[in-house]
Amino acid sequence: MTIPPLSYRISAAPRAHLFRVTLSISEADPEGQILALPAWVPGSYTIR
Question: Which whole number is the average pLDDT over 11-23?
Fold first, then answer.
């Protein structure tokens, strides 16, 4: 099993304290992907 190449694009709206993250998968598995975001906050050991 090979891991498909991933591409991230990040843009920021500093005054609004917002970021937009776009993930592109160039060779997606036709059966689907499993994606996850971290549940932690940097500098904190509490799961939010």
Answer: 91
